Amino acid sequence: MNRPQRPLNRAEQAEPQPARRAVLRAAAAGAGGWALQASSAALGLTGLAGLAGLGLADTAKAQNRGDAPGVEVQTLSLRREDGAVLLDFDLRVHLPPAVEDALSRGVPLYFQASAALFRPRWYWRDARVARVERQWRLSFQPLTGVYRVTLGSIAQNHARLEDALTAVSRLGRWQVADPGQAEAGERHYAEFSWKLDINQLPRPMQFGLGSGTEWSLGVERTLRLEP
Asked: Which domain range does residue 95 map to?
């Protein structure tokens, strides 16, 4: 025969039973774990946001440090003078980071300018009247910190890269055709190009340097010659 259970007094009701205490501890531990995970997640998001902010700041600083890589045409003209045909060009060149890094490590760069003069013909391909070409070699001497520009047998030293690039991208009174080659009164036009010649790079560096890479640096224009 079961005895009736004695009713609990107030002190016993206030004190949790062992099983109840275990349940309460587990609940408290679970809540603490969730709170810790939530805090860690918040810190993680804050850290990622901070890194993203630093990345954006670095990108903005990089964009503000200089102009975008490429070639800008400042001056490009074709004219007749004393029967000859002369060409003037002035380009503004900004080397891509990969190209500038290779130059600073001692890899010489070769820049080539060419101009061809044509006479249109309606019955056949246009006749090429004359063609000229020039090539500059730009190198950097790490020991002296000097940029050296070589054109044929002439060499010049420059303390700044900007001055060296100006030397390889500016030319005035370049004679494209001799007197008598482009007769007055006839229509002519010239095809001009200036580029970084990747074929002159060391052979191992040429692999993978196709069009669309940072090494595709150049400009092409067609100019009309007044009769």
From this structure: 70-225
